[in-house]
Amino acid sequence: MALTGSALAADLPMRREAPAPYVAVPVFTWTGFYVGIHGSGIVSGDVRGTTLAPLPVIGLEANVGGFVAGGTVGYNYQFSPGDGFVVGVEGDIGFADFGNRVRATIPGAGSAFARAEVQDYFATIRGRIGYAFGPLLVYATGGAAFTELNIGAGITAPGLLVGSINSRRSLDGFTVGGGFEYALTPSISMKAEYLYTEFDRQVFSFPVPALAVVPRASAEIDIHQLKVGLNYRFNLFN
């Protein structure tokens, strides 16, 4: 009987613990739409202007400085989660305040001034291509830029504005640069980038009723920006 019981026990199936459920570890990806805020300093740049005939041709060049601040919207697509190439498109628009003003003293009469200023919108639409090392994205960027430039000149006597002329034109140009972006969380990232922007030369007219001819001048501007930003990414496909 003892032998029979042992044989029966050996034939019974052994009870094993159920295997732990498989839980996939999420892999970070930059794919998705995002919105954000940004601010930048105009660390250097130049505005170049020239008066045109029938005025005497006089050239003027001055350094510019200021800031840009606004909002950002964009989309990234990462070809493989984790490490891999990333492409995207980004647009931003903000308020800009940069330019310069020069003044010259007229002995015994007062002074004359000339200015070139951007105190309006500043927008870009750019492509981005880069490589992601997990939560760190290193990228190059380039595209189109848009703003509005206001230039003017005037003559002042002590305590009195004798006369002034002003003209405003929209400017188009290009922008190129690069930077890096780091994901603080799966949805929030911060970025730092450098952008060089150059706007096409435009002709400005200054109608003056008392003059038979219309004074004209041409001007162009380029700037170097250091920008920082904070983005929120929507995980629509993760």
Average per-residue pLDDT, rounded, comes to 85
Number of strands: 9
Helical percentage = under 10%
Q: Strand order, main sheet: write it out.
A: 1-3-4-5-6-7-8-9
Order of helices and strands: HEEEEEEEEE
Low-confidence stretches: none
What is the tally of helical segments?
1
Question: What does the model show?
Answer:
The chain is mainly beta. Helix content is 4%, strand content 72%. It has an 8-stranded antiparallel barrel with strand order 1-3-4-5-6-7-8-9. The radius of gyration is 31 Å and the shape is rod-shaped. The chain starts with a helix and ends with a strand.
Keywords:
mainly beta; 9 strands; 72% strand
